[in-house]
Amino acid sequence: AMSSAAAGDCAVGPTESSVPLVSFLQRLQSEALKTFGPKSFDPKLYVDLPLKQDLVVTEEAFAKLQRVNGTITLSELEKFVNSFFGKVGDDLVYEEPKDFVLEPEEFLPKVKNPKVRAWALQVHSIWKNLSRRVSDDVREWPERHTLLPLPEPVVIPGSRFREIYYWDSYWIVRGLLVSKMYDTAKAVVNNLLWLIEVYGHVLNGARVYYSNRSQPPLLTSMVREIYMKTGDLVFAKKALPLLIKEHLFWNSGFHRVVIQDLQGREHSLSRHYAFWDTPRPESATIDKESASKLPSDSDKEAFYRQVASAAETGWDFSSRWMRDSSDLTTLSATSIIPVDLNAYLYKMELDLAFLAKKVGDATISKNFKEASNARLQAMTSILWNAEMNQWLDYWLSSCARDCEDKHQFDARNQNDKIFASNFIPLWTWNHKSDTSKHEIKVENILESFQKSGLLRDAGISTSLLNSSQQWDFPNGWAPLQHVIIEGFANSGSKAARSLAEDMAVRWIKTNYVAFVITGAMHEKYDVQACGKVGGGGEYKPQTGFGWSNGVVLALLEEFGWPQDRELEC
Ligand SMILES: OC[C@H]1O[C@H](O[C@H]2O[C@H](CO)[C@@H](O)[C@H](O)[C@H]2O)[C@H](O)[C@@H](O)[C@@H]1O
């Protein structure tokens, strides 16, 4: 057994170098922690501060600040921050979305209950609060900002997440489509496409310090959803080459892993891998503290890579990526072939085949259909577990000499712990073609889900273990509810559709009750009781909140709400 992330976890690899502005802001961040103390300290705030003057001038003034016993005094630091920086968040200015109307035409036609309609309209109106555009200052002085100069208006998750995020955007787009805000949805996507143009992949978020990694890849899904609603072929055509570039990012280099099955067939699957081996700038003080017990610099570097790679999974953090669920330094995200990532990539391949066909490129379409077939085979051979009737993450047993080496399949390496992600492939599953070929039966998956213990009074839990990390029990997250509900709803089974509706009702009710109690939509909820908000993890729970709003609207659109159904729990 390996005790730390360093042991054979494929953690030595390419790294990006930090830009001078981020290195300086990180120094400011660690000084600020000394001066202000840990109470209510959010390290991200410091790397988001916009500079008023050039870095050299700011650094000179910083070096001259007075210290007492090695610590900058409170008044000195406050004065310095006020004089040399704009307010955090000033780099993204409020922008009224042009396609927002108070009550869109044909809004949620299946919602018959007036109280639910009224609340849905309130949720819809939150898009106005979450809409921004990059300030002129960022365009004029990009080197003074960690925010990237995105070309079009954005919609943010909310609170400390004051920039665009990759996978959050999928559910934001789904919600915007329900709100008939097609131009705003296209603008969100155009920004993400711009990131591919500039960096070769979609970044975790639109800050320069997020460029070392991506997040769960759902951009083709966004383009496809928008195309389905608008029929805009020009939009789809423009997106296609960049989406193909993104596919290559996830299927080459350190993201690609080859595994040979017991019949000797080779399968290519993907994993998460960040190009980073130092603390995450937005959480550097926390990462350094976590790494402090590791013995050597190389152990620390390996740990930092695992931390950043776990952030790429979107599940930061979770016992899912840890060898010992009580010890964060055992994070080993690069040693796992994740079920959800490969399900999203399977969908990416199907989406690319679909979009290519629409724009008239039969060869590209055929190539991606073949790629999707190959991934389906790979997922069935390596990740599917026929006894448990669910897909399981696969642990890579060694890194061998380098990460390009072939791995040999060993059934004991499937992780038999229950996570919500074990059921995500159902979302991308074609119940007409995929089931018959592989003897994977929706009814069996449904039974295994019902027995799993994941479904609680107020939604689907992320896992069964309370590790105090935020992507574990008892937290329920909107994106996971949505893909599992949609997976069962569209699975072709009546029983599965009925469970899906039941889960949608639980989720909508808990969001509503928490909204009434707190006046806000939340980033995560506690699935143990209706109206309870989530917790755990390294930052204070946030409100806003992009994906929660999007999922409520999307579920209401799909299932509606009868006149006589209560909204309270
Ligand atoms: O600042 C800590 C981490 O915060 C982000 O992760 C969380 O919020 C994101 C925005 O809602 C969400 O996409 C992610 O799933 C959450 O875990 C950020 O993405 C991390 O990179 C960052 O280190």
From TrEMBL:
Keyword Calcium: no
Enzyme Commission designation: 3.2.1.28
Record field: catalytic activity: alpha,alpha-trehalose + H2O = alpha-D-glucose + beta-D-glucose
The keyword Protease is annotated on this UniProt entry: no
Keywords noted in UniProt: Glycosidase, Hydrolase, Signal
Pfam family, one: Trehalase
GO BP, one annotated term: trehalose catabolic process
Superkingdom of origin organism: Eukaryota
PANTHER family per the UniProt record, alphabetical: TREHALASE
Protein name per the record: Trehalase
Protein species of origin: Vanilla planifolia (Vanilla)
